Amino acid sequence: MTPFHLAFPVRDLDETRAFYGEVLGCAIGRSSATWVDFDLYGHQMSAHLRPQAAQAASDGKVDGILVPIPHFGAVLLMDDWRRLATGLEARDDIDWLERPMVRFKGEPGEQATLFIRDPSGNALEFKGFRSLEQVFAH
Q1: Maximum alpha-carbon separation in the chain
Q2: Can you tell me where the transmembrane regions are (predicted)?
Q3: What was the pLDDT predicted at 2?
């Protein structure tokens, strides 16, 4: 698997470093006065300072549940997802959009999911699968 790159707007680089580095455990890469790179499960995420760009996401529906659009995140194997979910649930400073749950239970593509917001209001989804072959199952 090759990593993807995503550039996204943030309102403050210091709070963004704290959230992605300390809360999500991302390694911090290169940075400047206007951007910082993070390693999110092997993917290059570039947070760019854009205080005026933060906007609330609108909602779409997946499996009958409203989800924020746009959003980004990572697909994880179930053990990694459980570790992340447990760590996030133990904190009292998480802006939850959707607490950990299982979607499409008993169907092809069954997945665990959770949604949170970063300090700039960006919506993130983390999905957990028993195997990566399930990601595109239908």
Answers
A1: 48
A2: none
A3: 87
CA 74 – CA 62 distance, rounded (Å): 17
Give me 44's structure tokens: 């290059």
pLDDT in tens, 103-133: 999 998 899 999 999 999 999 999 999 998 8
> Residue 131: helix, strand or coil by DSSP?
coil
Among the listed residues 126, 34, 30, the one whose alpha carbon sits nearest the alpha carbon of residue 80: 126
pLDDT tens-digit map of 44-60: 999 999 988 656 667 78
The total number of residues shown for the chain amounts to 138
- Cα torsion for 123, 106, 3, 15, to the nearest 10°? 20
pTM: 0.90
Q: Which of 25, 23, 55, 20 is nearest to 36 (CA)?
A: 20
The vertex-73 CA angle with 65 and 50, nearest 5°, equals 105
